[in-house]
């Protein structure tokens, strides 16, 4: 692995009065240090994944932490054998992770965070409903043993899926535990369930990435690989590069050497 190529996945829900005004300064800070990736800005905060040398990332993360409410920015680090992004993009969006529920505010109410080392015991309890909140193509290459796959093509579909199946989902369950790649989608999904009247809701702190980093493979309940939105495509235990590639026309993750069933089926 080439030394010095570090990847930082980050997010923070915090109110920005004028996210558009933050775009150019952030882009300039990244370009000045050679950092590539994508940052999303919205009135609800910041989200993104960026990569560069340790010193470059430290400088950019310092700039982000200086933004209003971002001093305790959530960041997860991993490594790549080469720069996993072709360029730097900073975009202003309606949401930093799109759910389409304008009244959901993770700064007001979310589920209870569960440390990766406590996650196995929680999801092994038969009275816990475990939900994978990611998209169907992400779940297809890996998930936790026994987790429910909503089979949603987009996170925007999650609220309608839950409302349509709520009664059958919660039957015989005392609590709900949810997880996603880095934690951000669970901030919204747990906040959403709380707004729907589900009281005992939990989510994996730091997401799958933190679990794969901290929990030894021999103790892990994770099966398969974890999809990531960069040129590495997937990661394994210890955040080592996985064995998947990406279909260029549609972007779906594929095992090395296999044809895409959607584009070539």
From TrEMBL:
Report the residue ranges that make up the Rhodanese domain in this protein: 124-220
Write down the top EC class of this protein. Answer: oxidoreductase
Q: Does the keyword tRNA processing apply?
A: yes
Q: What is its EC number?
A: 1.14.-.-
Recorded catalytic reaction(s): these are: uridine(34) in tRNA + AH2 + O2 = 5-hydroxyuridine(34) in tRNA + A + H2O
The family database entries (PROSITE patterns) matched by this protein are listed as: RHODANESE_3 (PS50206)
What this protein is reported to do is described as:
Catalyzes oxygen-dependent 5-hydroxyuridine (ho5U) modification at position 34 in tRNAs.
Q: What is this protein called?
A: tRNA uridine(34) hydroxylase
Q: Which organism is it from?
A: Erythrobacter fulvus
Lineage, please? Bacteria, Pseudomonadati, Pseudomonadota, Alphaproteobacteria, Sphingomonadales
């Amino acid at each position: 692995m080439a030394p010095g190529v570090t990847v930082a996945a980050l997010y923070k829900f915090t109110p920005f009065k004028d996210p558009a005004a933050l775009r150019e300064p952030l882009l300039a800070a990244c370009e000045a240090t050679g950092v590539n990736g994508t940052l999303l800005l919205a009135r609800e905060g910041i989200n993104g994944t960026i990569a560069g040398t340790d010193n470059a990332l430290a400088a950019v993360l310092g700039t982000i932490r200086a933004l209003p409410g971002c001093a305790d920015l959530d960041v997860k680090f991993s490594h790549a054998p080469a720069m996993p992004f072709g360029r730097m993009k900073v975009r202003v969006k309606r949401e930093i992770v799109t759910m389409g529920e304008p009244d959901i505010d993770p700064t007001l109410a979310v589920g209870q965070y569960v440390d990766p080392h406590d996650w196995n015991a929680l999801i092994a309890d038969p009275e816990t409903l475990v939900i994978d909140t990611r998209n169907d193509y992400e779940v297809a290459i890996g998930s936790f043993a026994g987790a429910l796959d909503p089979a949603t093509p987009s996170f925007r579909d999650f609220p309608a899926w839950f409302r349509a199946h709520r009664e059958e989902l919660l039957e015989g369950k005392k609590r709900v535990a949810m997880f996603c790649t880095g934690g951000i989608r669970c901030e919204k999904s747990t906040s959403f369930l709380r707004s729907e009247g589900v009281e005992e809701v939990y989510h994996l702190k730091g997401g799958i990435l933190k679990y794969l980093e901290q929990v030894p493979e021999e103790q892990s309940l994770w099966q398969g690989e974890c999809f990531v939105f960069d040129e590495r495509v997937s990661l394994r235990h210890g955040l080592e590069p996985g064995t998947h590639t990406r279909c260029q026309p549609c972007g779906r993750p594929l095992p090395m050497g296999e044809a895409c069933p959607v584009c070539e089926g």
